């Protein structure tokens, strides 16, 4: 048995080394990438990470560094499961666009055509003050494209304004039991801006989840499972974990009042979840998410099955928000942020790269020019884009 395991490991190492050699990535520089993150873990700034890099369709790098439970010093493994928070958003947007291809709607349709509770929306005069500042009628109806691109005027409920507090209480703290209840609560809140006038990071992908229910009669969980997860082989992705999967869940971490990294007292509920949202809610692994990302890199097709037209992927991965997205050199498409001016980013990605992240510091990006997919998984709160940017920097510096 030992000989068999040793042979299998050596064969995997040889195959991975061969893929790296043909990919245009430097093995020495990829070692630099691992060394950087190992140092962050050793010095107590990160608990543990799992990362995957695919180039030209081949796995060229995989890391499992540090701990799944920093307090207990439990070593992290490549098959571990993470709560991916807002990395749910690109998946839900993709699933929703599958229905676009089946003719259920136009991107220019008002959402009130299908969800009448959004017909008479109000806009708050000052989000910092909230509803007491006064309300005025929205200048126009909210379109599906604006929902997908976060330009509809909604908030997420996680910002510092009084309106964020109102939204947070209505759609999260009130304890809705279904996505229908959450979306109706969102519709009852005023908008932070008039539709199409600003980019606000928002809970609008929950509306996409609700529309999937309305169009198909299926719950978002069942739709994602049957139309994306099972066909793609994403066996560890969903809104609830089985007993077997729970043992592979990575613990959430934070810094205590003394600035010391610790395992968080409150952990993410892994079962009994009933709000199948589009803003957050999914659990996944680095390997599972890489399958989704590779399908999108491949123009909507994977392993002989087509999920989206290449033209649909194209329109999703170009800037749909004009100059409203406040991040230099980047815009926002239909479910993804997009690099559209490399010089303005002052960083290393290619133009056309599309990406997003999750609140517990999970990240991914898709670079069509380099035929590159990369996934970074950890469980750390609060969110920072620091390691997202460092992750990209350390991968791109390995390209020869």
Overview of this protein structure:
It contains 13 helices and 16 strands. The strands form 5 sheets. The protein has an 8-stranded antiparallel sheet, with helices on both faces. It has a two-stranded antiparallel ribbon with strand order 4-9. Helix 3 (88-100) packs parallel to helix 7 and helix 5 packs antiparallel against helix 6 (179-187). By secondary structure, the protein is α+β, with helices and mostly antiparallel strands. The two termini are 39 Å apart. Strand 15 and strand 16 (372-377) form a beta hairpin. Residues 5-15 have low confidence and may be disordered.
How is the secondary structure organized here?
Blueprint: H1 2-23, H2 27-42, E1 48-55, E2 58-69, E3 74-75, E4 82-83, H3 88-100, E5 122-124, E6 135-137, H4 144-149, H5 162-173, H6 179-187, H7 205-216, H8 220-232, H9 243-246, E7 253-255, E8 261-263, E9 283-284, H10 286-297, E10 301-302, E11 305-306, H11 310-316, E12 330-332, E13 337-339, H12 342-345, E14 354-358, E15 362-367, E16 372-377, H13 386-396
Antiparallel strand pairs: 1-2, 1-16, 2-3, 4-9, 5-6, 7-8, 10-11, 12-13, 13-14, 14-15, 15-16
